[in-house]
Specification:
By secondary structure, this protein is an alpha/beta fold. The protein is built from 11 helices and 14 strands. It has one domain: Arginase, Chain A (3-Layer(aba) Sandwich), CATH 3.40.800. A hairpin with a 2-residue loop joins strand 1 and strand 2.
């Protein structure tokens, strides 16, 4: 499946980041961190990919790197910001801005060494910290760890005096002992970034982790059992189907109980969509289940949000990311948070 050449809508006038990249939902484009003050939520893009190859799981790497741009392209379709299901004009209730993409180091083009990966992570952290400095929620659109996961969790944990809760929606646990790509203990990569959170940050406790969506036979049983012993609240797809998404939503409070901040993460392979190709697994979450969860997560409150593994070339999924963000913000508005 190829992503068609994007055509700007004939109606509407919105800021452009580049000649073919509008801002998210046509909202203001901010390039100076000092001008983030007053924003409630900040969109940040990451083009980091954990590969040096031209292909990644059978799809051109450039298509994966373009997800933030393509989500923005599809988002202007919904630039009114009116969420009719809740009769809410979101942009009249809160300020959303686009802070562009993190400026990844040019050294990445010459190899994914641990130092290059850490520099890329710091580039995302910089923008996340600038959003947090302004009192806003950073929302990072990307595809690989650590730049679109740990790079958001780390700044939140470092600046929070109390505990930090986590709501994670994912097909996989990502709690391996070490990064498989580099074998370097400093790297919070795809296979171990979640474990790294709890290894490094003492104010992140498994009792405040709500883990949703896992299934399949790819996990290390000892690692999973260890997380469960430490208090993780786990809702694999089998359990989700048994208790319904409403049952899962009732338990979201575990992320907040005794916590001062909450970080939310979506790995979009949780959909099980055919658009993921060989990355897809059966028993995926439905659109409704994810949006119901997103709204309730927003009602409970959150301090940071990230996305990885956004299926490349899938217009429907790019648009779905917009829905998730807006349903979360709608929940926040409804709850007065």
């Amino acid at each position: 499946m190829l992503y068609p050449e994007w055509q700007a809508p004939s109606s509407g006038d919105f800021p452009m980041i580049t000649s073919d990249t509008p801002t998210f939902m046509g909202q203001p484009y901010i390039t100076d961190a000092k001008k983030l003050k007053g924003a409630d939520a900040v969109i940040i893009g990451s083009t980091y990919m954990a590969t040096e190859s031209d292909m990644y799981y059978g799809i051109p790497t450039d298509d994966w790197r373009s997800v933030a741009k393509r989500v923005r392209q599809q988002s202007v379709r919904y630039s009114s910001g009116y969420v009719q299901e809740f009769d809410l004009e979101i942009f009249k209730r809160l300020k959303l801005v686009d802070f562009g993409d993190a400026e990844l180091p040019s050294e990445l083009r010459h190899g994914l060494t641990p130092d290059n990966i850490l520099n890329a992570q710091r580039a995302v952290e910089l923008k996340v910290n600038q959003a947090l400095d302004a009192g806003a929620i950073p929302i990072v659109l990307g595809n690989n760890s650590p730049c679109s996961s740990y790079a958001i969790a780390k700044p939140i944990a470092e600046r929070t005096k109390g505990n930090v809760g986590v709501v994670s929606i994912d097909t996989h646990w990502d709690i391996g002992k070490i990064d498989r790509l580099t074998g370097d203990p400093r790297i919070a990569g795809a296979s171990n970034w979640k474990a790294k959170m709890y290894e490094v940050h003492r104010n992140m406790l498994q009792k405040n982790l709500v883990e949703i969506g896992e299934r399949g036979m790819l996990e290390d049983k000892d690692r999973v059992r260890d997380f469960l012993k430490k208090g993780t609240h786990w809702y694999p797809m089998w359990k989700l189907r048994e208790i319904g998404i409403e049952g899962v939503c009732r338990d979201l409070h575990y992320a907040h109980d005794g916590a001062e901040a909450v970080y939310v993460h979506y790995d979009m392979d949780v959909l099980g969509s055919e658009a993921l190709g060989i990355l897809a697994d059966p028993i995926g979450m439905t659109d409704y289940e994810i949006l119901k969860l997103s709204f309730e997560v927003g009602r409970n409150g959150f301090n940071g949000l990230s996305f990885i593994c956004i299926p490349p070339n899938s217009i429907a999924t790019y648009r779905f990311i917009v829905y998730i963000i807006m349903y979360m913000l709608a929940g926040k508005v409804v709850a007065g948070k």
